[in-house]
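Lab notebook, bench 4. The sequencing result for the construct came back, and we need a structural model before the next group meeting so we can plan mutations. Quick request posted to the team channel:

Model the 3D structure of this chain.
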Amino acid sequence: MEIKEKTGFYRLSWMQRIGYGSGDLAQNLIFQTVACYLMLYLTTVLKINPAFVSGLILSVRLIDCFWSPIVGRYIDNRNSKLGKYRAYLLYGGIPLTVAACLLMLPQAATWSTSLKIVYATVSYTVLSMIYSVVNIPYGSIMASMTRDNDEVLKLTSTRMVCANIGQIVVQAGFPIGLAIFAHTVIDWNQATFMAIGTIPAFIILPSLPMLKNWLGKKGLYYLLLSIGFIGFAILFSVGKFFDVESCNTLVQAAKVMTGVGLLVGSLMWALVPEVITEAEYRTGNRPAATVNALAGVAFKAGFSIAGWITPLVMGMIGFDLASEESALPIDPNAWFTVTCVFAIIGFVLLLFCFTGCKERIATTPERPVTYGEMFAEFKANKCLQLVLSIFVVVFLASFISAPVNAYYTKLNEYSPTSQNAILWFTCIIPAILLIVVGLLIYKYPLTDERLDEINKEIEARS
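Done. Here's the predicted structure in token form:
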């Protein structure tokens, strides 16, 4: 154990793993609220034009493309007494909680259209920028805790289980919470369909080390993607040729299968420490925050493209979210209350994450990293380019269907044109994107054997 401690291959306790993972649970309580429900809030509660909402989501993410590298560079070039990375869980956690609570003010529903647009633009932009201040250093903590690949895999598994707990709590809990606070009947089929795709995470993620040894890293990804593709095909077939409500058991089973395929998005975070290590091997610096900032940009790019395309193209097809009957209650007070509950719980979890993490491999460059060097690293690091491409596509597949899922269980209540729009975004487009993800994974070059060699050479230099 002592040798391991001296060479950077640290063993982590379960308390450290869970402590770190609680940070992802905290952030997902806010992020999933935005990813799954903000678009619906703006279009169905505030009645803002879907075309504007589409442009707003894209614009904010474009701002983040410039903002995230600034945050990453700032963090990589500095040290804080409270921890190089974990300090930002506190520095950013408080304003993040406040910004999340201000995102869905009930008074906004009574304002003029112009004021609603200004409010939506400012509140969403501020929340997104603060979120990066927490999310980027949080992702960097993982690469600073150990070099051991097995430990990183366990840490990733724990983190992603916690993230999926946050996802299932929001995706199922938000519509249930809305129904409770709006004093309407809870649609249990809808709530289950929204969240049941997360169930595979609690089975597969704890078994990752065993599955990886059995199937190999790429073999595991291919299996998950294949199951997900079949699930989307079943959902399309049921929605196109049968009555969704009468096939509820098959529909829920197929949604679980799609969750298996989309779980690859969670596993991609395990590749980020690999890319950081490869960069350290070539350059001598360990640009954890910089790489996580770029990964965050790619992740958010997938989310933003989904948020941009969904309301815009659905409107072109003939399904206007602002004018169609909403699949969720539209009581502004209910939306505000549920959002505040998730945000406050999230802050408490960020405090737990801060106390549960221990950084032991966190380096600061002898001279500040420039933006030119950041671009040069992206240009030189082929592994990073592939990982970022996978992030964009797999999270585009995840989020392009997220807001529309609320409408799938009520498919028969809409016109044939609207049904086609819903099926395209809940089934067809995500299935095509999973195929693209598989092709990108095929090109990824870093094997576990090569990573072990690289880590040993790095430690030998030290």
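Residues 1-6 have pLDDT under 50 and may be disordered.
Will bring this to the meeting.
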